[in-house]
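User: Second chain of the day. Same drill as before.
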Amino acid sequence: MKKLFSYLFILISFFISLEILVRYNFEAFQSLSDKLLFKIAMLEKRASDEIVFIGSSRTQDSIDVPVFSKQTNKSSFSIASTGQNKNRYFYTINEVLKLNFVKTVIIEIHQVNLRKGKLNFPIEKNIKESDPNLNFEEKLQESVNKIFKTVQVRKSFKPKTLFRLLMYLTSNLFNHDIWFRSNTLLQIFSLFNQEEKATNFPLYQSSSIEQMINDDYSSLIELISKTNKKIIFLNPPVGEKSLEKDCAEKYLKIYSAIKFPLLNFACHPTKKELLRDQKHLNPKGRVQFTKFLGNYLKKENLLDAL
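Assistant: Same format as last time:
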């Protein structure tokens, strides 16, 4: 009997502790099952990053955040993510622009961010109003859902999402950028094998911005024109086979009425040894491009406050 009470005490204590943890970090638990929401939650918790990168997997694989922060002496964070579409792209930009501590937003300008798609956030259904026809068991279950936060975010208690919780709780101590990409071990190894001098990445200069742009980019310009933050557009490096598509002029005609810096590195082929595939840099290429970009932004004073 003593063992039974001891077991029950440990079980109840564990559940109470878990409930307290969830209540104090409820928004974080809600965001654990979506990579984009999770990154935004981490950024808000850190509340110290002056520079934020937004974009698709192309930017995610092009920017090494710790290297960029060291290169520019400014704290930075990347919300670039796989599975990007227009709704998630605009949602991310809008959320980042609300954050007072963010001074500069570097936005990937590429058609992949404007693909049709839904937000697909794992939003829990709202607790329904009591139904007088519910039986006792259903009413009990309804009451439990209303009272306990742990039950409301039960889908977050999976090995992968629990690892994200650890990342969230330690996000003020470490920048976990490296864990959001594949080949993590190769990335870690590359940290000990970095070249001192950054590789040169040719930058294409647009000769004209007179051409009309489509409604998607017009909406983007309208959104960012209302902010007092520094906005920089970025088109990351690509391989030779992707030049024709990624170097299309429509990426260079960014609204003639409002001019933002546009750094287009997709018009010259990147060395094969720096590529994972035709659209993404490998760990070595990421470090080299990050160093080059950091140096270029400092040299051109593009990170200075408005």
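The mean pLDDT is 78.

User: Great, on to the next one.
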